[in-house]
Specification:
By secondary structure, this protein is α/β, with parallel strands linked by helices. 35% of the residues lie in helices and 19% in strands. Bound molecules: S-adenosyl-L-homocysteine and iron/sulfur cluster.
Amino acid sequence: MSALSPYDLSLPELQALLEGWGEPPFRARQVWEWLYVHLADDWEQMTNLPRTLRERLAAHLPLVSPRVLATQVSSDGLTRKDLLQLADGETIETVLMRYERRRTACISTQVGCPIGCLFCATGQAGFRRNLSAGEIVAQAIHFARILRAEGDTPTDRPLSNVVLMGMGEPLLNYPATLEAIRRLSDPQGFRLGQRHITLSTVGIVPEIDRLAEETSPSGGPLQITLAISLHAATDELRNRLVPINRRYGLDALFAACRRYVNRTGRRISFEWVLIAGVNDSPAQAGALADRLQGLTAHVNLIPLNPTPAYEGKPPSRPAIAAFTDVLERRGIPFTVRLRRGIEIQAGCGQLRGRRA
Ligand code: SAH
Ligand code: SF4
């Protein structure tokens, strides 16, 4: 079993450890700030801790940067994808996207994914294990350190946004995902506003309800953005593309979405990977508009990033226009996502797939 990293500990766990070593109560907060505010990557940098404590911490909780096995940078230099090796040798992908003043980390929550959406490279490769909260958080810290070292922090934060849209299904790794969200948004730690965090799910209905009931330290509901990977507006089509739909069909999913919006007051994003001749018809767009009636929602249309094990292709421009015309006429807000990063296999799971 590999040694724990300090990112595997919550603040109460760190407090208990340090108090057990006879340290005064304020020590844990000092260490916490070094880890999450100053983004220290070596215990020796924590100069306000006694040397003996730094040595003891280094021996118990090695503070090492994740090992980067491969990096790909898009030709415009704005998107970077890293293949990271975890302590047990498993690998995950994590992506940094720079867009105007935004610096967004797209992070993974599982090694692989058990859902098996047809078009997804992660799903095609199967499931290995859940990530710990520390392994999820460490991906954001990784890019925050890089941006700070580059001096590329246009906002006052080292990272401006985090999207849980990398490998894996976050709501099938619920406790670690929630702990990671709390950790990243901790006002005394990494301090990322919850409105700058997006959780993307394929639609695990009971867990959407569970998420709606979570509260912030301020007492209100979580303020994160929920994104639902929809891809089809009829059960017949969605059953084929997204196998979990046979368990949680569209009626149940949309009922949960309505409960989520009512409870949290937050708008939901719907992700729709456009696949030529499969789900890009005006009829599907119409069915989508029907489903979204009366729901505060936004649709993100993402032309398919081709993957080796799926024969689908992204639609032509006129096909995309025919689809968006319907949404426009029906007053559904949408964005067509730029295909930045396609040449670096920025589709989820694709860098890892290439090396396997
Ligand atoms: N499991 C979660 C989060 C990870 S997938 C989910 O499904 O929402 C993140 C997003 O990437 C999803 O919307 C997914 O549909 C999309 N995606 C997966 N494979 C893709 C591909 N080949 N091209 C474009 N988008 C893809
Ligand atoms: Fe899993 Fe999301 Fe990929 Fe589907 S799209 S296989 S849920 S990671």
